[in-house]
Amino acid sequence: MERILGAAKAIATARRNRAPLKALPKDIVPRDEAEGYQVQRALHDLLQPQLGSLVGYKIGCTSAVMQQYLDIAHPCGGGVFEKVVHESGVSLPAADYVNVGVECEIAVRLARNLAASEAPFTAEWVAEAIEAYHPAMEIVDDRYVKWETLGAPTLVADDFFAAGCVLGPAVPRIIAPDLLGVTGRAVINGKEEGRGTGADVLGHPHNALAWLANHLAAEGRDLHAGQIVLTGSLVKTLWLKAGDVVVLELDGLGKVEATFT
Q1: What domains, with CATH codes, occur in the chain?
Q2: Where are the bilayer-spanning segments (predicted)?
Q3: 75: cis peptide before it, omega within 30°?
Q4: How do residues 73-102 score in pLDDT, each as one tens digit?
């Protein structure tokens, strides 16, 4: 559909040029979130030559603090690409982003496929498909002239602020702590700036994973073994400046660090 591709091309151009995205023209702006996800899929095809293959997903708006902050009362998904998944300790140029921020998350890596044909999924079902957890720093980018006025369909179309992630070492599911009790702390330049628990993510991060699996299944799409899913932030987004050193500590899962130069 021409409208869908037109919107995807406009967003892809803004992202490549690191140009803040304005409201899309009326003739191509996605009219609802379903259309936003159609644009997102077209955008993924356009971005892969630059960002590498789609290796997983991020889920936004899974905690009360983030739903209030963004004024969106339900989860939203976006893509995670191969070339913007980093290991803990990485140093990244702040100039690579329009306005970079981070979120403190629990990531999962899947041991098996979650096929659309198996839906509907429950938290218990998807838990069995998890190979390991990672302490995770989602990198987000406020690449908008004014995100508050764009509306959820356009934010969804542009991967809902997603700009990559930093992962700490894997913790196999069979030895991981109960995620409900995992406290995450966000420390910037040695000062704690936010904290939350696994229970803040839709009651349990596995609920977020089940939401994503069902959301994709409704579009006839699968989750695949080896994919990474960022389940949502335990803390409100922390916006950074060049020179900031970020350490996220998640009890029982370890920590993840990055410097934005």
Answers
A1: 55-260 (3.90.850.10)
A2: none
A3: no
A4: 999 999 999 999 999 999 999 999 999 999
